[in-house]
Amino acid sequence: MGESVNLFEIKGVYKCYQKKSKPKVYAVYNVDLNIKKGEVLGLVGESGCGKSTLAKILLKLEQPTMGQILFNGQDITDYSFHQMRKIRNRMQMVFQGNANAFNPHFTVEQIIGEPLNNYSNESKEEKEKKIVSMLEKVGLNKTYLTRYSHEMSGGQRQRIGIARALILHPEFVACDEAVSSIDYALKNQILTLLTDLKQQFGLTYLFISHDIAAVNKICDRVVVMYLGNIVEVIPNINNNAQHPYTKALLAATLIPNPKNRRKNTVLFREGEEIKIPDKGCVFQNRCIYTQEICKNEQPALKTQKEGHYIACHLCHHS
Ligand SMILES: Nc1ncnc2c1ncn2[C@@H]1O[C@H](COP(=O)(O)OP(=O)(O)OP(=O)(O)O)[C@@H](O)[C@H]1O
Ligand SMILES: [Mg+2]
């Protein structure tokens, strides 16, 4: 196998949000991460752990508070809006819940066509042909061209979001909950589509999802985040996950009835306020194995095995 090349490299990235009179919130905390060209990198972790924020930082839709972002070896951390515009067509995002965020006055043709208008000088006919072909790729057809977003189901809108992100044939797509409100059969169809398009266009994806089965299906590697920190990077999340948080997350997700998930696990306590500890391991307050060292020293993300990294004082002894 040839040497892998990084499409993205992020180093020491922090994102801090501070609202007036409220304490600081670190949505992303000291994250180092490489995304290899051609891979599908999964990103999982419970709600609020910083997944969307991290994706937006990669695309510079959010500016990191600290740290560095390299795209194709180029440091884009301080790129201006104007400089980003020149490379924006190479990186796209399927936004979480974007189904509800489309311009209500736009037809499907306008929604999917907007990036084309911004980045290409093709004729109206050529653009329409591309839009119809992309619609077909996401399992819709040209009768949708004149529809407005309120005239479609959540799943249809989600597919419009995917079509829109792919229309410029970007190199990288961050898919933020791209299949979350789609039923099982269609979900599999969209996952297959994402895989086909990846092969066809040599794409790289960041795939954010609460759906572990979907993550397993299409990801080459999975990053697990907890309160802004990466706690584990693992080739296959169902195989040999070791961080106590990853294990708890898997246990929580595997409870069949979604309504019971939050109640039945140590992870999700209703109304519980989770504080980031001042020192030590970020997971110490909820971990069942916490020891003295966990309260005092923050564990570094260390190699467990080739391609498998864990930030836990206790895991490396096993
Ligand atoms: N614009 C913002 N202003 C202030 N706080 C924010 C902002 N965006 C995100 N946050 C906070 O940052 C943290 C991470 O949010 P983020 O949306 O990245 O989480 P997430 O992992 O994508 O969650 P979900 O799974 O629910 O989508 C949360 O505590 C959130 O409240
Ligand atoms: Mg999110």
Automatic annotation (TrEMBL):
Ranges for domain ABC transporter come to 8-252
Q: Which Pfam families match?
A: ABC_tran, oligo_HPY
The answer to whether the entry has keyword NAD is no
Domain of life of the organism encoding this protein: Archaea
One Gene Ontology BP term is:
transmembrane transport
Which SUPFAM superfamilies has this protein been placed in?
Answer: P-loop containing nucleoside triphosphate hydrolases (SSF52540)
Keyword vocabulary terms for this entry: ATP-binding, Nucleotide-binding, Transport
Q: Which InterPro entries match?
A: AAA+_ATPase (IPR003593), ABC_transp_ATP-bind (IPR050319), ABC_transporter-like_ATP-bd (IPR003439), ABC_transporter-like_CS (IPR017871), Oligopep_ABC_C (IPR013563), P-loop_NTPase (IPR027417)
Query: In the record, what terms sit under GO molecular function?
Result: ATP binding; ATP hydrolysis activity
Does the keyword section mention NAD?
no
Q: Which PANTHER family match?
A: TRANSPORT ATP-BINDING PROTEIN (PTHR43776)
Protein's recorded name:
Oligopeptide transport ATP-binding protein OppF
